[in-house]
Specification:
Keywords: Hydrolase, Signal
Radius of gyration: 27 Å
Protein name: Glycoside hydrolase family 95 protein
Bound molecules: alpha-L-fucopyranose
Strand content: 15-25%
CATH class of one domain: Mainly Beta
Organism: Dyadobacter chenhuakuii
GO molecular function, one term: hydrolase activity
Shape: globular
Structural class: alpha+beta
Low-confidence stretches: 1-28
InterPro entries: 6-hairpin_glycosidase_sf, 6hp_glycosidase-like_sf, AFCA-like_C, Alpha-L-fucosidase, GH95_cat, GH95_N_dom
Oligomer: single chain
CATH architecture of one domain: Distorted Sandwich
CATH topology of one domain: Beta-galactosidase, Chain A, domain 5
Number of strands: 34
Length: about 775
């Protein structure tokens, strides 16, 4: 059958095309990742996403591959992972730990205390779109790029004397992925398109200008349907699940995908109807592109960071990454890295979608590393570190929706495992909102996942000052998390202090009574609840109780090697280079250990970090950037940034320390997106810190960043900072007060305080004098 879908006037199309088909960067300060060759591996391909759909664009000449995901395609089924009757063993486990019988405690816990099943479920790749251009064997002037400002992946090249262009974007308003193909000479575009998947259970059908890919996961109840329609001015024919387009000037492929997942308890959705409805409602590409760019820029454009371009800044991104290793004088690369993280958040975490998982939403495997789920003993939280400072508070919303679900599944686990009120989450969760301990008792029993997540609600309030959010959403969830610890904390027979037992210092040292990190998190949660109760003028008795309990929780301790103790007893191995440095949580993202207020503890924390060393997995390096920023040591933070930017050009190499792949995805290795977000947060912490109730400007500026300008950087108290610095010195700053709070500003040893009116700007000079 032959169809003809007229969509464009050829004249307009060609005119627009010639201008944008350029093989050299228009100006290299552009917020673009760009390359002179197609992807050789998945970690070269460029990510796009609209929160629920994600895709990797490979940019091959003769064969384009667009590997895509839909966020709800996971293995498994709705279920509670709680272990019935586990709480009967709690006292015994605690006693064994008190008696120093760790192995026995772990053995009992393995048998009676772990989630059922023991492992959580896996996020799944969905499918691939393959576009074949068999005639394109003479490519020249090749360039592919990811335009962070517009949210579009593009490919340009010439085949003979005909220019070809591909624009690929994932639209949040249209809920679909668009692949627009154009030739700069009329009728020269010929290609075949098909869909495929790596699932054993799959079915590919087509008719007229549409293809349908159905998949079903191997181990679970979820199935997905992806649909693709071709809109073109060329001749369309369909055969054997493949669509051929001939003699076109332009063609757009519109892709939708959906599953039967409705929520963590419900799988009664109709994926075929959902994806058909998306396609039916999808606007034509010109309108969709316009709406997409507006939608993307309305978030992306809230923040800008300008750091100077240097000799290497104009290089393609992969070459620039390699060069950075020995010649890190490329400040603009840090700005690109921060903006890439913001781009990735917009692409993977939009209101109404799920929280960004271990790989954001980008996964090409059925057995991804760590199932590409949510590890909440660092990784999931790290994903959201730059979201408030980077002026993307909307992108925090999916995490809050997940926390709301977890407060329910976690309440069942609190009852079943600890006979406690409130809710908790252990070290992992998945799309089914598992909250019970998983994998192994020596690291799966870690009780402060929900508490740490809850602090994100508090941070959102601190940055936005949104009292309705605090009252309706944040405080009830935070309170539930705190209630759990009121019941759970137990007296340490040796010190008489309250401790968290059983738990562990994430993935280091096995099951213990009273890891330092837990106590820091619980104190922070109690403090957040106290302050919330104060703001909301509610729950005074509960607040008083938390205050009293806080003072009884085991404090931070300095050990014999001068280190901050990771546990209750002074047993830290000072030769260990373990990737987790969890006991420094109170330095970052916590704030109870600070240079001014607790100088001895900050010294001890630094000592601990020095013992651990500068190496680590991607996320570990990223966390260390933030630690050094909070130590106000910009030089050491910059050393860590260099390590995070360590080029890892071959993704099959899984050994060794972390770094960055050619597409700047963080390498654990393997790929894990947390480092992208943690690294960006660390760079922002060098420019401003606001956790201590004042806007501390340029608190840890490294020598490598002497000049720069930032705008739209958000600080707690709902202030938006625009500032410029030169030769390492602040030039001027403009503070926009979004909530009318009093403003305390600090720069070096200078400090100023002034009242503000909501919506007004306040300009200060380098001496912090109001202008
Ligand atoms: C924790 C870390 C690992 C990895 C995994 C996803 O288990 O210890 O390094 O990041 O999460």
């Amino acid at each position: 059958m032959i169809f003809r879908f007229l969509q464009f006037s050829k004249a307009t199309l060609l005119a627009g095309f010639v201008i944008s088909l350029s093989t050299t960067p228009s100006h290299a300060q552009d917020l673009k990742l760009w390359y002179k060759q197609p992807s050789k591996q998945w970690e070269d391909a460029l990510p796009i996403g609209n929160g629920s759909l994600a895709a990797m664009v490979f940019g091959g000449v003769e064969n384009e591959r667009i590997q895509f995901n839909e966020e709800t395609l996971w293995t498994g089924e709705p279920r509670s992972y709680a272990h019935k009757g586990a709480s009967q063993y709690l006292a015994q486990i605690r006693t064994l730990l008190n008696e120093g019988k760790q192995k026995e405690a772990e053995a009992i816990a393995s048998e009676h205390f772990m989630g059922v099943p023991l492992r959580q479920m896996a996020y799944q790749a969905f499918g691939d779109v393959h576009i074949d251009f068999p005639e394109h064997r003479n490519a020249s002037d090749y360039r592919r790029e990811l335009d962070l400002e517009k949210g579009i992946a593009q490919v340009y090249y010439k085949n003979g004397n005909v220019g070809f262009k591909r624009e690929v974007f994932a639209s949040y308003p249209a809920k679909a992925i668009y692949i627009k193909l154009t030739a700069d000479q009329a009728g020269k575009l010929n290609f075949a398109v098909r869909m495929d998947a790596i699932h054993a259970q799959k079915n590919i059908t087509g008719h007229a200008n549409e293809l349908t890919l159905q998949v079903k996961v191997e181990n679970g109840v979820l199935e997905g349907v992806a649909k693709m329609k071709v809109v073109t001015d060329g001749k369309v024919s369909h055969k054997n699940g493949k669509i051929n387009v001939e003699n076109a000037t332009a063609a757009t492929l519109i892709l939708s995908a959906a599953t039967n997942y409705v929520d963590y308890q419900t799988v009664s959705g109709n994926p075929a109807a959902k994806s058909a409805a998306i396609l039916k409602n999808a606007p034509l590409v010109d309108k969709a592109l316009k709406e997409h760019i507006a939608d993307h820029q309305q978030l992306f454009g809230h923040f800008a960071l300008h750091l100077p371009m240097k000799a290497n800044s104009a290089l393609p991104t992969d070459e620039r990454l390699v060069k950075f290793k020995d010649n890190p004088d490329d400040p603009a690369f840090l700005a690109l890295y921060v903006q890439y993280a913001r781009y990735l958040l917009i692409a993977s975490s939009r209101p109404g979608t799920h929280a960004a998982n271990l790989q954001g939403k980008w996964n090409h495997q059925l057995k991804p590393s760590w199932d590409s789920k949510y590890t909440v003993n660092i990784n999931t939280e790290m994903n959201y570190w730059p979201v408030e400072m980077g002026n993307l508070p909307e992108c925090h919303q999916p995490l809050f929706a997940m926390i709301a679900d977890l407060s329910k599944t976690g309440a069942a686990v609190a009852k079943e495992h600890y006979n406690a009120n409130g809710w908790l989450v252990h070290h992992n969760t998945d799309v089914w909102r598992g909250a019970a301990p998983i994998n192994a008792s020596n690291h799966g029993i870690w009780v402060t996942g929900g508490a740490w997540l809850s602090l994100h609600l508090w941070e959102h309030y601190r940055f936005t000052q949104d009292k309705t959010f605090l009252e309706k959403t944040a405080y009830p969830l935070m309170k539930g998390a705190a209630v759990f610890f009121v019941d759970f904390l137990v007296k340490d027979p040796k010190t008489g202090m309250l401790i968290s037992s059983p738990s562990n210092s994430p993935e280091n040292g096995g099951l213990v009574a009273g890891p330092t990190m837990d106590h820091q998190i619980i104190r922070a949660l109690f403090k957040a609840c106290l302050e919330s109760a104060d703001v909301l003028k509610t729950d005074q008795d509960f607040a008083a109780r938390l205050k009293k309990l806080s003072l009884q929780i085991a404090p931070n301790q300095v050990g014999k090697a001068g280190q901050l103790q990771e546990w209750m007893t002074d047993i830290d191995d000072t030769t260990s280079h373990h990737r987790h440095v969890s006991h420094l949580w109170g330095v970052y993202p916590g704030e109870e250990i600070t240079p001014e207020k607790t100088p001895e503890l900050i010294q001890a924390a630094k000592k601990s970090l020095e013992f651990r060393g500068d190496d680590g997995t991607g996320w570990s390096l990223a966390w260390k950037i933030n630690y050094w920023a909070r130590f106000l040591d910009g030089e050491h933070a910059y050393t860590m940034i260099r390590k995070l930017f360590n080029p890892i050009m071959d993704a099959s190499v899984k050994k060794g320390g972390g770094g960055s792949y050619p597409n700047l995805f963080d390498a654990h290795p393997p790929f894990q997106i947390d480092g992208n977000f943690g690294g960006a947060a660390g760079i922002l912490e060098l420019l401003a810190q606001s956790h201590l109730g004042e806007l501390h400007l340029l608190p840890a500026l490294p020598k490598a960043l002497p000049d720069g300008k930032v705008s739209g950087l958000v600080a707690r108290g709902a202030f938006e900072i625009t500032m410029k610095w030169k030769n390492g010195q602040l030039q001027r700053v403009d503070v926009l007060s979004k909530a009318g709070n009093p403003c305390h500003v600090r720069y070096g040893s200078k400090r100023v305080t002034f009242d503000t009116v909501k919506g007004k700007h306040y300009k200060l000079n380098a001496d912090l004098q109001l202008q």
